[in-house]
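Hi there, hope your week has been kind to you so far. Please have a think about how the structure follows from the sequence. I've dropped the whole record in just underneath, so have a look:

_____
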Amino acid sequence: MRIMALIAATALASCATSALPAAETLLRGEPLDAHIESLMAREEVVGLAVAVIERGEITHVRAYGYRNRENALPLETDTIMYGASVTKAAFAYMVMQLVDEGRLDLDRSIADYLLRPLPDYEDYTDLAGDERWRQLTPRILLSHTSGFANMRFLEEDRRLRFHFTPGEHYAYSNEGIWVLQTVLEEGLGLDVGAEMQRRVFDRFGMTRTSMQWRDDFAGNLADGYAMDGTFEPHDRRDNVAAAGSMDTTISDQARMWRDMFRGVGLSPAARAEWVRAQFPIRTRQKFPTIPFYNSVDPRGEATSLSASLVGETWVSPSERYFSKGGHNDWTGNLVICGETQQRCLVMLGNSVRAEIIFPEIAELILGQTQFPFWWIYPELHSEE
């Protein structure tokens, strides 16, 4: 296996007189940097930023490669990168603060919060005549069991509909997160962007993170690169989208995941609920969502792969993990945290090709995690 060759090479280079068992040979510092750079060169990854959190401390933060390859501009630890769906984990954390305060009940129908029926709002007129919207709750929406497609524009007629009764199946859905954002804004009268800033970003000292574009981001900004290397300029997102509008840096993400792991700003019960398994995932793959929502792969059952409010959770023989990813055609992000060993790995790529090397980096830093790469990236890691 390629990863074991890398670890063996490091041991020889350092002239180590004794070796730990393979499962404990976790790289840090300059040897880790050298291997990540080697993996990036092998797979032509333009830019990647990595942070490691261990037992409540940020132990490694580094950026590699370029934020703009055409102009040879280096990616730096304070470079603005697109958070993509990692935004959802932070949004769920903010929601759990509202739960702690008694302003939101995870199991209460959204009909109890909205001032008028959901189909009466302009974005949800497609649901007129289907009363299943009343079965939606914050828990169902955050755990991706709403019954909606990932995004309505993926539907043949580009209209929103239920593909199954809420709570019956897992199918990842941005639409569900947007419904919950509507509940907070229209039902509770909250400004989601301002609440995220106050309750998460400011609380954790994240000075270069926002749910909306800021002009001061322009001077140090990561552009994107597709699988074939095609350049895509960084998108300036003016509208707050709870499902994925966060701009951020690897330094800020290190702070965010350190403090969210600790449960800063949450009661112990709310923090536990944020990572708890909510609904079993047995589908053959994560995307596309609707064609696979009723499929079965035994590998998911073997690891107890489940939806959580933060993202996904699963177990290995010695550890319980949770994770959250973020992806578009030019972005590859992934966070993996182990509860027992209290380790988190944060990876932000402005090149989607970074997803090819995520398994090897994760093994170098965390060891064997049994992360379901086969489920999230089936076209890249179908043999995992």
